[in-house]
Amino acid sequence: MEFRDKRNPNHKPVRKAVIPVAGLGTRLLPITKSVPKELLPVVDVPAIQVVVEECVHAGIEEVIFITGRGKGGIEDHFDYNFELEKILEQRGKTEELERVRAISQLIRTISVRQKKPLGLGHAVLCARDVVEDEPFVVVLPDDLISSEPSVTTQLIEVYEKYGQGVVSTMPVPDEEVSRYGIITGENWAPSLHRVRTIVEKPEPGMTPSNLAVIGRYLLPPEIFDFLEDQEPDESGEIQLTDALSKLARERALVGYEFTGRRHDIGDKLGFLTANIAYGLNRPDLGPEVLSYLRKKVAEADEAEES
Ligand code: G1P
Predict the structure, then answer these.
(1) pLDDT (tens digit, 9 = 90+) per residue, 170-179?
(2) What is the count of structural domains for the chain?
């Protein structure tokens, strides 16, 4: 398979994003007992809105949520809220009204129910009838990545250049490889790898690379054929990683080392650091967050010295 710069103008444009939101969020219990993790705040914006806005800025026109039981609040968030809008209007709260209304006008959303918890590969396969015969992005909403341009935009650029599926990657410390899908392959240009295989959550020391797949993928529609043929793993889940490995072997797959800062907000520490980082970037809050942090660091230093 060719890895030349193709700039093929005949590629179908990337218009659709699949966002799996059926996960239980067990790493964040007890809050996720009743609140979908995707609705947890990044300062005052639900995490799911942060990733949907990333899609909108990348030119995506339609978002397909793969949902599950108890996740209805996500659809509500992107819908009109007639009662709230009416009250805000009556009270003359124009700014708030505009903010609330803008969310419902962000993008067209479609929901597909994943009726059984059969893994990420199965979640993506649930989108087949809606995606049809087009390339699409998969966005895992646990991974918040701040960068300019966004990682989704970066992936679309790589796809437009090489015309192959792309997975975003990031080097991780050796002791963390078992949390991720890890790619092996050859580096053929700065930040670009030809993927040979991906191993899901390998034991440390059992893989020649420490390049982890992070939650942004740009996939050709052929991935659905590989997913459909994919046998479940020993835990009964259909792994996206296994289908991607087959795509890499039988067609081609690019591993792209993105630039940006990633927070895993499905994890308690990642959730906290994301809130600090996004809070620091907010013009209305940043200076105060920074002075609070400085004070805390000074106090900790003092305590250590005494
Ligand atoms: C999933 C994928 C894994 C990938 C990770 C990125 O794992 O299966 O390959 O590295 O997302 O966040 P999960 O975090 O759902 O266990």
Answers:
(1) 999 999 999 9
(2) 1
Determine the average pLDDT of the residues in 195-222. Answer: 93
**99 part of a folded domain:** yes
Domain span holding position 61? 17-266
Is ligand 1 within 6 A of the CB of residue 170? no
Which pLDDT band, with edges at 50, 70 and 90, does 212 fall under? very high
Residue 172, in any domain of the structure: yes
Q: Whose CA is closest to atom 9 on ligand 1?
A: 181
Is there an atom of ligand 1 within 6 Å of 165 CB? no
Torsions phi, psi for 180 (to 5 deg): -135, 170
Ligand 1 pocket, 181 CB below 6 A?
A: yes
**Residue 209 near residue 188, CB atoms below 8 Å:** no
Tell me which residue has its CA closest to atom 11 in ligand 1: 215
Asked whether 64 and 130 are in contact (CB, 8 A), the reply is: yes
Q: 57: domain CATH number?
A: 3.90.550.10
In whole angstroms, what is the distance from residue 190 CA to residue 130 CA?
Answer: 35
Buried b or exposed e, range 191-209, using 16+ CB within 10 angstroms: ebbbbebbbbebeeeebeb
Report the percent of the chain where pLDDT is more than 90. Answer: 91
List pLDDT tens digits, range 115-168: 998 999 999 999 999 999 999 999 999 999 999 999 999 999 999 999 999 999
* Residue 303 placed within a domain: no
Average pLDDT over residues 218-230: 97
CB-count burial class (<10 Å; 0-12, 13-18, 19+) for 33: exposed
In a domain, 37, yes or no: yes
> Is 152:52 a contact under the CB 8 Å cutoff?
no
